[in-house]
Design goal:
The protein is built from nine helices and seven strands. It is α/β, with parallel strands linked by helices. The C terminus is likely disordered.
Length: 256
């Protein structure tokens, strides 16, 4: 059954992305610009995330929305744990403000999905040229944050298997410091149901925990990112203890 549901879900994404991409292109061409094209793009991402419930049996539980900034002029750097494509679909769906992803430019080559990404004011980078990519993140990120747009980044750079932590890169912290914007850490347990490798998704619950904003003013990038990493990884262990049996056992022993 999970295989059949996973196939149906993939077919659903393929079928629905086409009309939504046309809407994105039309919005961009006829005066909507990046802001206008974001509306249908967000609608498809929300559809992709929300339809995982009826088609795959994947539900989500979100905590910490009250931690998000309420000032419409306040930009923020959202740093998200990355275990699957689910959080890529989900973040624009649950966040109340327009967001811009930092993503590898290879995604622009994906038919329809990549074309939609190209129509929006987001930050695509060439991982083969890290210095150039960093300059692009800082330059474009500062501009977007200044417009009150939230920049979403996956600090590990790529998806990490459930129960593991990747190398947290400091570019998100550097952007926040440079722009004077707060950092908001987010833990996501999507690896429980949507594995990094493998096509088959499983029914279950994805917990999403949004942490309190962390001020970047006067901070050092490595120190700030270390704080972000410590919060996210501790929250991951709290939300998904089965993925960290050794850590859970050690914590239980220390508590006793």
């Amino acid at each position: 059954m999970p295989l059949i549901r996973s196939i149906l879900y993939m077919l659903w994404l393929i079928v629905t992305v086409i009309p939504y991409t046309l809407a994105v292109l039309l919005a961009r061409l006829f005066g909507g610009g990046p802001s206008g094209s974001y509306v249908p793009a967000r609608a498809w991402l929300a559809l992709a995330a929300n339809s995982a419930n009826p088609l795959l049996g994947i539900k989500r539980r979100v905590a910490g929305l009250e931690n998000l900034p309420t000032d419409p002029k306040q930009g923020a750097v959202i740093l998200v744990k990355h275990q699957s494509a689910y959080e890529t679909f989900m973040m624009p769906a649950i966040l109340p403000r327009r967001v811009a992803y930092v993503f590898k430019r290879e995604l622009l080559h994906i038919p329809f999905f990549g074309w939609s990404m190209a129509c929006m004011d987001m930050i695509h980078i060439d991982r083969g040229h890290p210095t150039r990519a960093f300059v692009r993140v800082i330059k474009q990120g500062r501009r977007l944050l200044g417009q009150g747009i939230w920049v979403v980044m996956f600090p590990e750079g790529t998806r990490t298997p459930r129960g593991q932590a990747g190398k947290y890169m400091v570019s998100g912290a550097r952007l926040a410091i440079d722009a004077g914007a707060p950092v908001i850490p987010v833990a996501v347990t999507s690896g429980r149901v949507w594995p990094k490798s493998g096509f088959i998704k499983r029914p279950g619950l994805v917990d999403v925990s949004i942490g309190a904003p962390i001020a970047s003013t006067g901070r050092k990038a490595d120190e700030l990112m270390a704080e972000v990493q410590a919060w996210i990884e501790a929250e991951m262990q709290r939300l998904d203890p089965d993925a960290y049996p050794a850590d859970a056992a050690a914590g239980a022993g220390a508590a006793s």
